[in-house]
Design brief:
Blueprint (H helix, E strand, L loop, with lengths): L3 E2 H8 L2 E3 L6 E2 L1 E2 L9 E4 L6 H6 L4 E4 L10 E3 L3 H11 L10 E2 L4 E2 L4 E2 L4 E2 L4 E2 L4 E2 L4 E2 L4 E2 L4 E2 L4 E2 L4 E2 L4 E2 L4 E2 L4 E4 L4 E4 L2 E4 L5 E4 L4 E2 L4 E3 L5 E4 L4 E2 L4 E2 L4 E2 L4 E2 L4 E2 L4 E2 L4 E2 L4 E2 L4 E2 L4 E2 L4 E2 L8 E3 L4 E2 H36 L2
Parallel strand pairs: 4-5, 5-6, 6-7, 8-11, 9-12, 10-13, 11-14, 12-15, 13-16, 14-17, 15-18, 16-19, 17-20, 18-21, 19-24, 20-25, 21-26, 24-27, 25-28, 26-29, 27-30, 28-31, 29-32, 30-33, 31-34, 32-35, 33-36, 34-37, 35-38, 37-39
Antiparallel strand pairs: 1-3, 2-7, 22-23, 39-40
């Protein structure tokens, strides 16, 4: 277990300790409502100040000093960045993956393995695969013919990479994800759907992170591409021939249909869906459960289904919330009209 004094932690986080002579030991990181005396906690905004004053944490990470706080504070301009550093410092220490090839692994012909690789139990690596230095292939993975994997990449358990794909360096693919499966592309021939051959592949660029149980389909021709630095949550479906730009954030259960073009820095919130052959511009943001049915310009913020400009979507939701009151008013008006009509019939 990692243990640090407050002064040591302040130095590692590039933060100012207040008071500078405060004493204590930190062993872990916890939120304000769960922190104890040996915990670092954090108050990212002013609305957390009340909880910080009543918490039991040994020290609190803050963007500016909290007045009258009766416990040490670590003051830093960027709490999020410091919190990431702290979580890495106090992360559980796990045994590293053993170097070498496990005896149960199956290695094809003309496979090239880099230095210090780890090939886990029951891995299958087919012919002509190239794997870079310091890369880890977890238990039960399968890597298809001719696939190339870069340096310092990690495939967690049971990942499947189909043939001919290219996975960059410093990539992380979590358990049970599938890269390069055949896309959902059919043509109706003679009255029945016939699968269109998918002769392309998938390219995953450097520093991409892919969550568990994701599916990224191979292209019909050329490549499906996930741009450098992009992060996918769990349960994301990427269709054939999709090209995703750099440093995008794609949340759980997002589905992107075939041949879409997603720009750099785009955010897709949970369960958003994008219809096929659409373009989403750089830095656009798509809200949760939004259904994108037309092109989205750069920097736009969309919500609702079908996706609307954020301000318009908020007005729509506001009107929907008024419907019960409007319905009650309508019923009352209908009763008044009935009474007026009845009074005409019986003067």
């Amino acid at each position: 277990m990692v243990e640090m004094t407050l002064q040591e932690l302040a130095a590692r986080l590039d933060a100012e300790l207040m008071p500078a002579d405060a004493q204590g030991l930190v062993r872990t990181v916890r939120p304000l409502d769960a922190a104890g005396p040996d915990c670092l906690s954090f108050a990212t905004t002013d609305r957390h100040q009340a909880a910080a004053r009543t918490c039991q944490a040994g020290v609190v990470l803050v963007p500016r000093p909290i007045p009258d706080l009766d416990k040490p504070q670590l003051v830093t301009a960027d709490v999020d960045a410091a919190l990431i550093k702290a979580l890495r410092i106090f992360a559980p220490v796990l045994a590293p993956a053993p170097e070498g090839v496990h005896p149960t692994a199956v290695i094809g012909s003309q496979v090239k393995l880099g230095d210090h690789v780890s090939i886990g139990p029951f891995v299958v690596i087919e012919d002509g695969v190239r794997i870079g230095h310091h890369t880890v292939i977890g238990a039960g993975c399968k890597v298809g013919q001719g696939t190339e994997i870069g340096d310092h990449t990690v495939l967690h358990q049971n990942v499947v990479i189909y043939h001919g794909c290219k996975i960059g360096s410093h990539v992380v693919i979590q358990a049970n994800s599938t890269i390069g499966s055949i896309g959902f592309g059919y043509a109706v021939i003679g009255g029945r759907p016939e699968l269109i051959p998918h002769n392309g592949a998938v390219v995953i660029e450097d520093y991409v992170e892919i969550g568990a149980n994701c599916c990224i389909d191979r292209a019909k021709f050329t490549n499906t591409v996930i741009g450098a630095g992009t992060k996918l949550d769990n349960l994301v479906q990427i269709g054939h021939n999709v090209i995703i730009g750099k440093c995008c954030l794609i949340s759980a259960q997002v589905g992107i249909a075939g041949s879409c073009r997603i720009g750099d820095g785009v955010v897709l919130a949970g369960q958003a869906g994008v219809a096929d052959n659409l373009s989403i511009g750089d830095r656009a943001m798509i809200g949760a459960q939004a259904g994108v049915m037309s092109d989205v310009p750069p920097g736009a913020k969309k919500a609702w289904s079908p996706a609307l400009d954020q301000s318009q979507a908020l007005r729509v939701v506001g009107e929907l919330l008024r419907l019960p009151r409007l319905a009650a008013q309508l019923k009352e008006l209908a009763k008044r009209v009935e009474r007026l009509e009845a009074s005409k019939d019986h003067p």
